[in-house]
Each structure stands twice: as C-alpha cells, then as structure tokens.
Amino acid sequence: MAIRTDVLVIGAGGAGARAAIEAAKNPQLNVLILNQGPVGKSGLTAMANGGMQWVSHPDDSPRYIFEDIVRVGCFLNDQNLIEVLAQEAPERSEELIKWGARPLAFDDKHGSGPSPDSPGRGPSYPRAHLIPGVTYMGALRKELGRHPNITIFEDVVATRLFSRGKRVTGAVIVDIRTGEYIAIEAKAVVLASGGLGELYPHSTNTPFGMRGHAAGMGYAMAYHAGAELIDMEMVQFTGNQLWPPWLLGNPALLVSLCGGQFKNALGNEFLKLPQPRDALQRLAYKEIKEGRGTERGGVFIDLTVSPLSSEEIEEQLKSSLAAEMAKERWKLIKAMSAGSPDPKSWKIEFTPGGAHFFMGGVRINERCETSVEGLYAAGEVSGGVHGANRMGGNALTEIIVFGARAGRYAAEYAGVTDWIELDEASVEHERERLLGFFKTRGITPKTVRDKIAALLSEHAGVARTGTGLAKALLHLESLRTEDLPNLRAPQGLRFNLGWIEAIQVPHMLDVAEMIVRSALFRTESRGAHYREDFAETRSAWLKHTRVTKGSETMELDAAPVIITRLKPEA
Amino acid sequence: MGEKPVLLKVFRYDPGTDRAPRYVRYEVPWREGLLLLSALKYVRDNLDETLAFRDYCCGCSWCSSCLMTVNGKSIQTCSRPLEPGESLMVEPMWGFPVIRDLVVDFGVSITTPDGVFRKMEGTIIRKERRH
C-alpha cells in the first residue's frame, strides 16, 4: 500500500521548505515534505551563519552580481541559472524577511569589498546581509504551517526514487521513529536533500563531529533514477579547526583579524597573507604532505606574535561571530576554554581540507527540471549554479530562488499529469534490501564510512593526482565488493541510527565514486578542483563533467556550459 | 591523559520492546573540550551502538535539537562541557513523549508572530500512526 501525494518534496531545509510553500499555492494540490529531523532543528540551512548576498546598494545591479558569480565560479556556471539567481534574489529575500526572518545587520564589514582572505575575488559592491540559519528556517517553518495542504513528515529518510521510463513515479521512505517502510506515489518530486560534507573526515557541515544531515543521499538517489549529474569533482574546501575544539569553523580568519602567523610543525612561517582562499588551502596542504604537518594532521596558527593584546584578540574573536548568535557561542567558547582562557596560549591547528560546500550536483535548467521527467532539484543537491567555486553569501539566496522555482514548476507539472503506479516488485526489492542490513555478524557502517572519508580526504581533497585518484577508485571498488555485502546494522526498528547509517553507506559509496571519477576525468585545474599533474586551467576544459548511470557501470562524458552573456577572457 | 573518565547514567527505553525504562552506566574517557553531546556519540560509536539520541548539531547552540534533562535540568547538551571525573544523569527532555532512549517527539508547535509557542491545529500534520 502506497501513500499518494501530488508533489513530494525531499528535504525541508531552505530549498525544500520554499518549494513546498510555492507548490502549495495551488490549493488543489497536496504537498508532502520530508525531513530527516525536526524542521528547523536539523539540516544544513539551520547551521548556516547567515551571510546572504543580494543587490541592495543603489550603485549595484543584478548585472554586476552576475559577473562576480561567473568570475568566482571560473566560468563553469550555467549562466542561464545565474541570470535567474541575480534577478530574483532581492524579491525572494524580501519575501523571507516579510515572513519573519529579520536580518541582523547590513554587514558593511564583509560586504564592502573582497573578503580578507581572498583578494581580487568576491563581490564588487557591499551587498552582504545576515540572516542566521535558525532565524531563516524559523520563518519558513512558520510559513509551511500556514498552508493546510502541506503535510510534514519529520524524522524520515528517503532511500530511493522510483522511475518508469524516464519519468519519476515516487519514492520510498523509512520512518526513523518506528522503522516503518512507506512507499509514496507522487506526480512530481522535488529533490532538495542538501550536500555531502559528511563524506569527508573534516567538514563545516559536521560541527563537533556530530551529524549535519549531509551524507549526500540525494545525489545517489537521483543517479539511480536516471538523472544527469555535473561537476561532481567540485568540492569547496575551507580551513577547518582541529584544535582547540571550541574554535568551530575556519580559524585561518584569525590571522588576518589579529595579525598572527601560519606556521608548520617545525615552527617556520610558511605563507604570508594576502592569499586567495584556494591558494592558502593548497600551501597549507603542501606543508602537511611534505611531512611538516602537526600530529593531528594540520598546521599551526600562532597568535603569540600578534601585536594585539589577549583582550583585543578576544574582542576580534567575538566580533567575528554573527551578532545575536555570538552570545550563545561566546558563552560556550568561554566555558570550554575555562582551563586556558588566554587566546594567545591556544595552540591553534587547522586542516585545509574541511569540506564546506558542494558545487556539483543534479543538472537542472532554469525551471529546475532534471533529465528525469517530473523530477525537480533545487539547492545544494543541484549543480551548475556556482560553477567551480561558490562566492560567499550565495547559498542562502540560491536555495530560496531555486526552491521557489522548483515548487512552482513541479506544481504546474503535477496539475496536468496523473500518478503512475509504483512497480510492486521494485518496492518489495527495496524493502528487502533495507531489512537485509539486520545481520548478526558483519562490518559496522561507521567502519565503512571512515574508510570512504579517508580515501576521499587523501586522494580527492585539496590537491589531486591522476595516480592517487586511480588508486582511490580501486579501493572504492574493493569496498563495494568486500565490505558492502557485510554491512551490518544493530537490531531494532525504532530510532535505530545505526540502521539509518547502514542505509546511507551504499549511497555514500556511489557518490564518492562520482567524485573520484569526475576528478580523474577533468584533466585540468579550475577553481576548487586542483590537479597537481594538470596544474593549468585549459580553455578546452570549459565544460561540465557529466555522470550518468550506464547499464552496468557509471558513465562519464563532458557537457557544454551554458554561456549567455559573459565569455571567458582569452 | 590520566584524567578521570566521565560517568554517564543514561535513561534507556524502547517503547516497542521494553516494559519499563532502565538506567545504564557508561564510562567515557575525558579529553579537553569534551561536550556532553559528543560524549553520547562516543558511547554510540564505541560502547553501545543501540543508544538513540538526536545526533544533529547546528554548532551555534541555537537549534535545540539536543535538548535533554541532565541532573534534573533541561539543557542543550551541545553546550555542556564536561569535567574529568564528572558524574551525570542523562534523561530525555521533560514534557515530551519519548520515542526511544533520549529521543523525544518535540511535537508540532510553532512560534507565532506574537512570540508565543502554540500548538498548530491541523496545519502541520503528523500521521496518526505516530501516536
């Protein structure tokens, strides 16, 4: 027995919530939205610091923001999508504010020019606004509640999309609370399942090493349903704290704020600011790779050389936290560092390989249509918007702009089409697969996850080589043949997170393979993708890498980038 | 190194199979910066893979997904650093139905424009099967 809905939205972060709200404007339609945790208390949007960019300065214009995004994205962006983003971001943002997401400040400091760690990059005009993720989600959650035709399932995880021919038919979910298996028939599906930071050992998506609901399930589900995925090699890395544990995020900013130095384990300064963000990551990576890294696998930030006093450093640290959020965060920093209150005494270490954002994903057009009929995608799970590098402040605008579009066009489609019955055998097959993880002996999902993360970090991280990637591919293949059949979940159906992890692992392996194969395929360096063996950007590679599911294996080819207005400088 | 471990006395209850709740003791090695929420993750990863708790973290002490009752007080466990040798009673958040162990059903409530937490009626609908 399957549940039926007109529009199914997978994921209730910013993109999914916005899609559901838009689709529900047609009162004839029923919209069902799924979330892995309570809405607003889970997912990546809720943890966002809140930097958003839209045109609000009188001298600014959507044309300039368009050009900035394309330049930062190294021309790999589909420009038809950027036109939409630049045009519609102000309207969507104003609407979000109207719904109760009050911006904290017009952030003059960060909006007034290039950010301190990326000279020559970033926005040309002050246009940064701050709406912390929790506020942002609070407004969307309230708005979801205003529509009687929206049903929310919280604590559920979608495991598979079904398609017939090239048309989506529905999905299967597991109710985490009960362990119940539910098939859903949908006329249209919006995939808004977020990113994949959890695939890497260090990520800003997993604060304190906890979960961020960013295991990349959506990419794999779209892949198996027959969708095209592009630029799967494009992982945006940032510095990520290794020590002390209370400095969440990117401590490299402290160097520019406080006048510290970057030092390797031998105590030598190895780089001086200013450096573009990606160059900074690579220089730190080089130190570690050549054996001058710390025991934790990072490099040091030395604040003892700072001309500022300990009190002044505290002030800088405090002011670098987003205003209202700072109060709670600051309390926690003080409590955690009670044993060593002087910031100059902190032995700060960071790794350059913190997975922060994923630029690649399911290929969409400006109607958010994928290559599977009835399947729409929006937000981080989609590709093509940010190209080879995401300019700061565009994720939170992207998700409402494309979320709204996905909802609108999915609703249009659901309004003129009918359900297709799910194929009973496929539904049963998926049920057996999910229950098959309950074994008495085998390998824990955490073991396999850790192996995948280690492989990606070593070979598909900040700097990549053909030989390394080829080796990673072989290892992934052996995980597939040797570990996957022995994946074991703990017993019990109710809120069994070990089981949910086991369900995620095969998908994570698929996504890891997409990343590695795409990185191997792109024999150049562009934006976030850096190949030591092909260090130059090549104009011949101004195209997307594209992954599709072949009859037996993963298939790769290149697809043209859509260029509307701005041609790359020769 | 050599610091005394943290002792957690954790509420365990699976309404599907347990007749009554019970308390299980876990010893977690202390390390600098250890938070209660990460100590629970240590338990699940290393000592007892069946322990259920909401293991999401927004990292800002804001989302409240990790609310639990600790030594009788409701707190966000992501914002509770631990001392060596500390002994804590960890129970699910008060006033909400327990789904399993430390996981509760936060229910369907929403902040209205006047700032009051109110139960929504029939708008955000959870299915009957949840009750």
Strand fraction band of chain B?
25-35%
Largest beta-sheet characterization of chain B: 5 strands, mixed
How many domains comprise the coordinates of chain B? 1
Task: Examine the secondary-structure arrangement and name the CATH architecture of the largest domain in chain A.
Answer: 3-Layer(bba) Sandwich
CATH fold type of chain B: Ubiquitin-like (UB roll)
H/E element sequence of chain B: EEHEEEEEEE
Specify the helix fraction band of chain A: 25-40%
**Rounded radius of gyration of chain B (Å):** 16 Å
* Spatial separation of the terminal alpha carbons of chain A: 59 Å
Please tell me what the overall shape of chain B is: globular
Percentage of β-strand residues of chain A: 15-25%
pLDDT under 50 segments of chain B (min length 5)?
109-131
What is the architecture of chain B at the second tier of CATH?
A: Roll
* Name of the CATH class of chain B: Alpha Beta
| CATH homologous superfamily designation of the largest domain in chain A | FAD/NAD(P)-binding domain
The CATH superfamily of chain B appears as Beta-grasp domain
Secondary-structure content class of chain B: mainly beta
Descriptive account of the structure:
- The complex is a heterodimer of chains A (570) and B (131).
- With 570 residues, chain A is α/β, with parallel strands linked by helices.
- Helices cover 36% and strands 19% of the residues of chain A.
- In chain A, strands 1, 2, 5, 6, 7, 8 and 16 form a 7-stranded mixed β-sheet that branches. In chain A, strands 17-15-9-18-19 form a 5-stranded mixed β-sheet.
- In chain A, a hairpin with a 5-residue loop joins strand 11 (261-263) and strand 12 (269-271).
- The longest helix of chain A has 25 residues, at 497-521.
- Chain A starts with a strand and ends in a 10-residue tail after the last strand.
- In chain B, a hairpin with a 5-residue loop joins strand 8 and strand 9 (117-119).
- Chain B is mainly β and 131 residues long.
- Chain B is 9% helix and 30% strand.
- In chain B, the strands form 3 sheets. In chain B, strands 2-1-5-3-4 form a 5-stranded mixed β-sheet, covered by helices on one side.
- Chain B has one domain: Ubiquitin-like (UB roll).
- Chains A and B meet through helix 5, strand 5 and helix 10 of A and helix 1 of B.
